[in-house]
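Internal ticket #5521
Category: modeling
Description: The requester needs a full-assembly model to guide mutagenesis choices. All entity lines are attached below as received. Residue total reported by intake: 603.
Assigned to: D.W.
Attached entities:
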Amino acid sequence: MKIQLRKKRLSRSAGGDFVIFLFLAAGAAFMSLPLVYSISQAFKPLNELFLFPPQFFVRNPTLDNFNDLLVLMGQSWVPISRYFFNSIFIVVFGMLGNVIFASIAAYTLSKHKFPGKKLVNEMIVLSLMFAPAVVSIPQYLVISWGKMINTPWAVIVPAWGSTLGLYLMRNFIEAMVDDSLLESARIDGASELRIYWQIVMPIVKPAWLTLIILVFQSLWATTGGMFIYAEQWKTLPYALNQIIAGGIARAGVAAAVTLVMMSVPIIVFVFNQSKIVETMGTSGLD
Amino acid sequence: MSAVVTRPTGVRTKSTLKERWANFVFEVKKNKISYLFLAPFMTLFFVFTVLPVLLSIVLSFTYFNMLEWPTWIGWTNYVRLFLADDIFLIAVQNTLVFAAITGPASYMLCLLFAWFINELQPKLRAFLTLLFYAPSISANAYMVWQIMFSGDSVGYINGQLLYWGIIERPIQWLVDPTYMMTIVIIVVLWMSLGTSFLVFIAGLQGIDNSLYEAAAIDGIRNRWQELWFVTLPVMRPYMMFGAIMAITQSFTAAGQITALTGFPPTDYATWTVMQHLQDYGFTRYEMGYASAIAFLLFATMVITQKIVQRLLQRIGQ
């Protein structure tokens, strides 16, 4: 596609490149603080974690914290794999549903003409600006009325209706998909569903890859909160928080947990941006 | 696709109810694919967003303590907010200052870094994107700052300043109202390369290279001209997205602020409208009052968004 190595363009000066490089390097050093700090903390032995004054970098790295975490996870009353399964279940179904429902609606709202289109678009923008805190009670009532309390669907189904994803997809389709392309596909007799799946979706791949990162991150962090009280459907963050809740005695384990929880979205992010995904899905088009 | 179908007669003349209904059915049938595609999402949207929002607006005219059935009290909540709640007025002032700084600044940072990073080779680009996005990935990243700005003499910043002899005694960074707002703004800006940053990068990658080649022939001389006349106009839909993100994040900031300066902070120095809302909603169980705050916040954000939308339409002219 068009994302290969950029050819040197006319409008670049060497001096400008250098200034930008310095700016980026300084920014990167500043922004990498939490990563460096979390990694450093996770490998600190207990005596360094409680060192006074605290040290930023680890001096005698150890795997003790991770060993302790494994032992604690093994002692869990509910097997830890169950929590892990629950988290994956919520993330996978929530993500798939959100990306598909949002993108098909986004395609319609961006490229079709029908009465009510303007109103719906306006409502979606408005809904993004309403503080979520006060709608939590009506939402709870709806979810409980739908008999979804204590099931993973209480988290998954509302995630499908997330307006952020729809708005993101709609703006990308607006910017990247050319009307004339759709028109010629229609003349060729392609069905609307086919146009959506085989023309629009491959073009806006950067959009849904980004959406996947965002949805993954928010669903991965969910504890089930006020919707899931049954132990068999609690999630991994909940279980790990329980382990950390041991307080100061668990400080080392807590540092390990932080790193573990962080590394999953990072792995997803790296995979998401890698060549493997880059070639997936476009094969139908290019 | 909608070529040969004709409308039922008499649409534009004085239409009876029956004719209107016929017209409505006709329109629905004509666009049934569009409505079909929208149906799953819109159902969820209505059930989980529109309905709760409307309910909450109704609640803002009631007294509702979450145990008893809400009682209608008309405009009382709104009157009370402006005339009887001094702390709300402090919160409004703080939020406006906070939003006026962090909103535009975070927006510019996202755009600038995305633009710079986009020029790099794919591997380096992915790596730097990850680094810049890191504070948003790690949910409790601001923990680092709590240790940095720790108020005793062994906090990293106090320690260094004492060592260099710049200060004589440790500064209570997160408790002294002189510094609190500044620190909160720095930390929030540091965490702000999130959603819109990723969207900008994805958007920049989608721009066709031939546009730049054509622009170079047309006499674009430097990267700033290229940015203003080529890149930004194509980016407008993403910039609108980013603007909404910046507005919502800057007007509804609460979590990070609570973690840094406490709930409530000294002299309410960093107390925001969103924290005020949480205080009334979930500490005092006055959901009607909290809903009134939410509605005012919503109205402010909508007005801001309309203004920003106007401004963004001027790009590239």
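Resolution: model delivered.
Comment from assignee: Chain B has one domain: 77-312.
Ticket closed.
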